[in-house]
Amino acid sequence: MADITITKEEIDNRHGRYVAHVAGIDAEAELTFTRRGEGRISADHTGAPEELRGTGAAGALVRHMVEDARANGFTIIPLCSYVQAQYAKHPEWADLFTTAPGEKPKIPQ
Description:
Layout: E1 4-10, E2 15-22, E3 28-35, E4 40-47, H1 57-72, E5 75-78, H2 81-89
Parallel strand pairs: 4-5
Antiparallel strand pairs: 1-2, 2-3, 3-4
């Protein structure tokens, strides 16, 4: 497995992203999010450039977001199709998501 470092960046008071860097590769993957009220975020988009495909960076981003939710007491609205797919493989995360595994979320206003 690749040596992956993940950081959390605040873009503004409502938006942010988790960023993954893989040792020896000059590229980054990201998982963007939006705060949707008290104790809730939406996972909006996961993106990884070709250089990072197959390194595990995207999966590491989702796991980090789940760990962050557990540590900081928020729930996740899985709008991103990649996050939905990872959640479907990990039903043990159900207490941290606003939908059941495989269920499509409603888009919040």
